[in-house]
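Q: My collaborator sent me two sequences in one message, no labels, and asked for predicted structures for both. Can we handle them in order? The first one she listed is below.
A: Yes, handling them in the order given. First sequence, followed by its structure tokens:
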Amino acid sequence: MTAVSRLILSSLAAIALFSQTVGAQQSVSVNEQAAADAVAKFVERAREENGLPKLRRIRDRYLRPDACRRARGGDKSVRRSTGIGPPEKVGMLSAIWYSTLDPNQPPAELLEWAKGPARQYEQPYRFAVGVCLVSAAKDSEQQYWIDVGTYMSAIKSLLNVPTWD
């Protein structure tokens, strides 16, 4: 076998290995997107069933990293918060985060949260979902960490300047 043949064979093997790795990474992002879509549908359905206005779905680039940070820390609790926080969260009204093995089975807390806030509080106009999927190497179990946020209207978010004392 000549050096050229070996070079061609090793290049083909590297390409095959690279495409398998990329395929595995894509399937994770596809699974995360499918989970985000499922959660979004639950939020939309809960609001519709309770006669609440439809929210426009947006992308919040901070939600997935927040979910992945919680995944690294192993935080599987269900929690809620108001949008008061760092400057990149300007416009966020509330958030809920949780962990689940099945994103198609929302916790009761998510459905209750989607019905809020009460009428006397500022009402959201937009929402976003961030998902971080972690697969355990030792078994095929997949754990989803999910963050969902509601936001003011885009114009109000632009005009909202936080003041920090």
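Q: And the one she listed second?
A: Here it is, processed independently of the first:
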Amino acid sequence: MLRDNQQIVWRSGCGCCRVTRRGFLAGCAGCALATGTLAVPTKLWGASPKNPGAKVRVVFCRQEQNRPTWPYINYDSKSRERELLSVLRQGCPKVEFLPAVLSGHSVKESGILDRDNEVDGYVVCLLGKDDAYRFEEVCHTGKPTIVADTLFAGSGWFVTRATKLLGKGEPVEWVSSSNNDDLVALAQHFQLAGEGCTADEIVAAIRTTRRQRTPAASDAACLDDPVMPNDMRHVLARLADTRIVVVGRSGRNQFRAATKEVFGLTFVPVAFEELAAAYEVTDADAARAFADEWTDEAQEIVEPSPEEILGSGRMYVAMKDVMKKYDATGISINCLGGFYGGHLKAYPCLGFSQLNNDGLVGGCEADQRSALTMATMGALVERPGFISDPVIDTSKNQIIYAHCVAMTKPFGTGGAANAYRIRSHAEDGNGAAIQSLLPAGYLVTTLEMDPVQQQVLIHQAKTAGNNPSEMACRTKLEANVQGDIEKLTENWRMGWHRVTFYGDLREPVAELCDRLNLQLVEEA
């Protein structure tokens, strides 16, 4: 499979004339797409062309309706399917698109590949997360395939699984864009199948068009934000005294041992039952004071009831009590497993935000790698980190950091606070969470530290505002990638989470890596 800047010679429609790639791309319909919003017809699947130059199976990968996950419970994926199929058919009149749905069962059980000989390629549209369907199997047919993410819906599978399909010699390309026209522009290249082009040639054209449609990096000038790192001896001594409680996840002993050996930090595993018991005997006045403070200072309270916010106060007090018991300065909880499993009566999101504002560690999902990253950077630069599920948007050359927990003091305990809204937890609409309206115009450094792999991942971006979508997690910080967004996307590793810190932290992180013999990996 040809990628990047390798020389490609294209055949014209008659199959005997030869043109350069530049000449081909200048003349093909796929590069002449208008950028306006396309109308969506009311008919369920729309009309197909009478004389298609190619046939393409569009595989819509959706989740079960009642599942609390991205983008949210009971998401109407069928409307999105109709929209995508409509714009594809309108924008690609020489291609016949044949819809298929993959949900709740494997590719084999679905029978989607049973009629592989009928089509010239595939578009795999990720509309949600479901472990059952294993969409990757659709990408191994040897036919040109586009994996398309629906932002804030299939992004978890796109970032962590779809990108692993690239660079393996198969004709697979991708698009992750908030602009439907980008998918249409790439899909137009399927018509080359009727002109004698190979799968590799079609996918190379798709890749070239995606790169052409990705805007150049924006102005990198950022607002002034000086950072004074601590002395490295102080940092290492502080880490050696740091203990972080991990609730509801007993595994990963190798990671804990490596963390202790490399960073000096200690993780303390605790069962759900212990936190739940602490919740039942919380100090009512302390819980009420916490709830009142967050309520009084909020820009807006959208969904949660006063009782749900008070529940968050009780959870915060319970977390603090457990931390005090184990002499810990941080806590990370398997919150989704605890809440959905009936172990916990309230989400810890507000409490996590308070801990992070106070210079401690409140970490989501019992993610020890991210909790380690937060604690280490807290010791190094005294700033809180924002754990997120990142989303890629090539139409803006942006990465979007999304989660239902975020600090409101991104510059540290003594720094300015930003506005916030109190929202429900996005996936299921329950409890109380934070929509932190983080400041734009600043350089942020995003990291993930792993002592087992002996690596620290790093990329930087300039914050651009807060994404208003109601899909997925409440806080969604948009940032313009400083570097190569394609490299960032195609080489994703170490799970989905990343931790974002305000400030240019490259130099102190590099010094830390030198001291601890860790490899600093530039993601972008």
